[in-house]
Design brief:
Layout: E1 5-10, H1 14-22, E2 29-35, H2 39-49, E3 52-53, H3 57-61, E4 68-71, H4 78-87, E5 91-95, H5 102-113, E6 119-122, H6 131-140, E7 146-154, H7 171-188, E8 191-199, H8 204-209, E9 214-221, E10 226-232, E11 239-246, E12 250-254, E13 263-265, E14 275-277, H9 281-299, H10 310-329, E15 333-334
Parallel strand pairs: 1-2, 1-4, 2-3, 4-5, 5-6, 7-10
Antiparallel strand pairs: 7-11, 8-9, 8-15, 9-10, 11-12, 13-14
Length: 335
């Protein structure tokens, strides 16, 4: 395919804007149109990114001038919209999680199996330096057999009520820890048992919906390795640390203190506070790379295997759901 891949965006909130910003640096791919249930937000998005405005998702899917859709809507809509977009013959990039239940995840997988359209899920840690290099290092055997991994992930505090609702967003485990669930399965293999502790310690939304804003999760992998994860919506924003210990060595990754750049300002400027901060260049790079990979997959020029497939996304969902169940029931849960 020589012409640009043309895409429509559904969902014009915070993460939709992150992906739209990424397309300023994506080659052979461009955004054409957008849609959102909140008309004022959609109008502002269309104006800011110079896109056509479709009145709704159904109208977006009927457009002949788009090859695929980027789904950046609230979590409970992901499965339904993915299935509809595939049925309409569109390639699909969908934010995580792929669904909120395994039954809906299975329906997405069935829909994907009936089409030749590209389906990619938004697990951008697979494109975040130096995590791809870590995966290659582990796969090469340089660290030997993985014994243990340890992760701390700081998610953005929710900016909408639905994030807290287990039936709509999933809470901190399903919405944020699922990134690490995919990562640790990618690096250390499948998980067969999960235990979790946590609660609604800080945020009023978490307390209203009895969903955690902080949680600690212990996982046992099929190969015998153990992973511990601390996930929080209240102790930071958008960064992580990750340690891997093997029989032949170890690897330490710090994206909290060692981002690509450190900024110091005497006075606040725009989104940047006074004092030291990280402009998060690593994350900006990650979103560009995952969208570039999506475009390259559609064009048939991507190296296979980097992105999260529907099977990978279902596996991460199963781990996250098991963690939430373990938290709710106060016992270990087998997958």
């Amino acid at each position: 395919m020589s012409a640009d891949v043309r895409l429509g965006v559904v969902g014009t909130g915070r993460i939709g804007r992150v992906h739209a910003d990424a397309y300023a640096r994506v080659t052979n791919g461009r955004l054409v149109a957008c849609a959102d249930a909140v008309s004022e937000r959609a109008e502002a998005f269309a104006r800011d990114y110079e896109l056509d405005l479709s009145p709704d998702f159904e109208s977006l899917l009927k457009r002949d001038d788009i090859d695929g859709v980027l789904i950046a809507t609230p979590n409970w809509l992901h499965a339904e919209m993915t299935i509809a977009a595939l049925a309409a013959g569109k390639h699909v990039f969908c934010q995580k999680p792929m669904a909120l239940t395994l039954q809906d995840a299975d329906a997405v997988e069935r829909a994907a199996s009936k089409t030749d359209r590209i389906l990619q899920f938004g697990f951008m840690l697979r494109f975040t330096p130096p995590l791809p290099a870590a995966q290659s290092l582990i796969a090469s055997g340089a660290l030997g057999d993985v014994i243990a991994t340890n992760a701390v992930v700081f998610g953005w505090e929710p900016n909408a009520e639905w994030f807290y609702d287990k039936a709509a967003g999933g809470g901190v485990v399903l919405d944020t820890m699922i990134h690490i669930a995919d990562l640790v399965c990618w690096l250390a293999g499948d998980v067969d048992r999960v235990h979790a502790e946590g609660g609604a310690f800080v945020l009023d939304g978490s307390k209203r919906h009895a969903s955690p804003d902080n949680a600690s999760v212990l996982m046992r992998h099929v190969g015998g390795a153990a992973t511990t994860i601390y996930v929080t919506w209240t102790a930071g924003h958008g960064d992580l640390t990750y340690e891997i210990y093997g029989t032949e060595g170890s690897l330490n990754i710090d994206l909290v203190e060692k981002q690509a750049s450190r900024l110091f300002l005497r006075r606040p400027h725009g989104a940047f506070p006074a004092g030291h901060s990280f402009p998060e260049m690593v994350w900006a790079y990650s979103y560009v790379e995952e969208q570039q990979y999506f475009v390259d997959q559609i064009r048939g020029v991507a190296i296979p295997g980097r992105a999260a497939s529907s099977k990978d996304a279902r596996r991460a969902l199963a781990v996250a759901l098991a963690a939430q169940k373990a938290l709710d029931e106060g016992k270990s849960v087998s997958i």
